[in-house]
Amino acid sequence: MYLTARKTGLLARTLDHLTRDFDAREVRQQIGLDLLELLDADYFASYVWDAERGVFADRIALNMDPANLSSYEAYYQFHDPITFKLQQRREPTLVVEIMPQRELLQTEFFNDFLARDGLYWGVNLYAYDGDRNIGDLRIWRARWRGNFDATTLELLRVIKPVFANALRHAVAPHGATPGGRNAAAFEAAGLGLTAREAEVGALLAEGLSDKQIARALNMAFSTVRTHVKSLFSKLAVHNRASLCRALLSRAHGARKS
Questions:
Q1: Which pLDDT score, from 0 to 100, does residue 182 have?
Q2: Would 20 be classed as within a structural domain?
Q3: Residues 201, 143 share a domain
Q4: 121 exposure class (CB count in 10 Å sphere: 0-12, 13-18, 19+)
Q5: Which of the listed residues 162, 169, 216, 232 has the most CB atoms within 10 Å of its CB?
């Protein structure tokens, strides 16, 4: 693989960013910014596969219309002729390797979703932890640029293990409970909390906003709000500061007993 000095520098920068102390969303956001430049791309999106619900969730996107992406999440991901095939590949893959371009151009998925933002040529990479898909990279070019090539795939093969490793270290260990020790203590504190309420309460106590909690727990924002209201009621408090104090006080008592 021959790279110009500029491309070599961009690749080194991308790999350096993947070694930094980022959370999982920051990893995907930063690599998206880097790949747009490194791969001469125009559009980027990244999701995490939620196996329990059977959906792609936790969107990161660059240069794409949020409303159009919302239509993908609500409808087009369930009528998608390419992404699930790409997800099965453990190597970076050009979209044309899965479906010839002329066939893709005839689909509803292309004409009513991809074309709305100008996405034409695509390449995808899916990161795994064992059999678990922990994040993906969906990179697209406008038609006028021409398709990605073998050099693109070689660059992504270099990046792939570092990207997967960054996600493994950024996310909670498999089977761990968000909020960790506090969540377990809250649930055991005799407050009548459900496991989900305990997780929400633990992250509240760590200072996270409702939106941050929704992302951390892969939960709808409205659902987080419902759990917070339930916590207010069960602990007989009327604001977040009082709620956090009450939770931490009861958790401390539960640990001592």
A1: 61
A2: yes
A3: no
A4: buried
A5: 216
Residues 44 and 108 in one domain: yes
- Average pLDDT estimate for 6-21: 90
Pick the most confident of 159-168, 180-189, 191-200, 242-251: 159-168
Query: How many Cα atoms within 13 Å fall on the side-chain side of residue 255?
Result: 12
User: Tokens at residue 254, please?
Assistant: 């539960």
250's enclosing H/E stretch is helix 240-256
The reply to whether 29 falls in a domain is yes
Domain that holds residue 214: 180-251
Task: Enter the tokens of residue 104.
Answer: 């893709």
Q: Does 251 or 77 have the greater pLDDT score?
A: 77
Give the CATH number for residue 189.
Answer: 1.10.10.10
What residues pair up with 55 in beta bridges, in sequence order?
A: 50
Q: How far apart are CA 73 and CA 57, in angstroms?
A: 8
73 shares its domain with 151? yes
CA atoms within 13 A on the CB side of 69: 17
Residue 252's pLDDT band (cuts 50, 70, 90): low
Residue 175 lies in a domain: no
Q: Is residue 256 part of a domain?
A: no
Q: Out of 80-84, 110-114, 125-129, 200-204, which region has the weakest mean confidence (pLDDT)?
A: 200-204
Domain count, the chain: 2
Helices (H), the chain: 5-17, 24-38, 66-74, 83-87, 95-98, 101-104, 108-109, 115-117, 150-170, 180-187, 195-205, 210-216, 221-235, 240-256
